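User: Hi! I'm working on a homework problem where we have to compare a predicted structure to a textbook description. Could you give me the structure for the chain below?
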Amino acid sequence: MDVRQVAKLAHLEITDEEVAVYTPQMAEIVAYVEQLNELDTENVEISVGGLTPEGAATDAAQEDAAHQSLGQKAALNQAPSAVEGHFQVPKVL
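Assistant: Happy to help. Predicted structure tokens:
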């Protein structure tokens, strides 16, 4: 795995020290994911997504049916911070 090439594709600047740190980490990730090649997928039904020509041609539309909403009280019940009926989140800008 060429960490510098990945960084370039992501438009990231990377130092030699970061290359030394990330190269073995990325190798471990790739080795972990490669374990999927060992799975028997003979009887697994093919699934396609919308980002492929096959997926775009697949009709995945569902009936648009109205359902009862969760409700404001229930939605905010587990919120870490709620103020005056709204979720309170940290300022990001």
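For your comparison, note the following. The beta strands are 82-83, 86-87. DSSP finds four helices and two strands in the chain. Good luck with the assignment!
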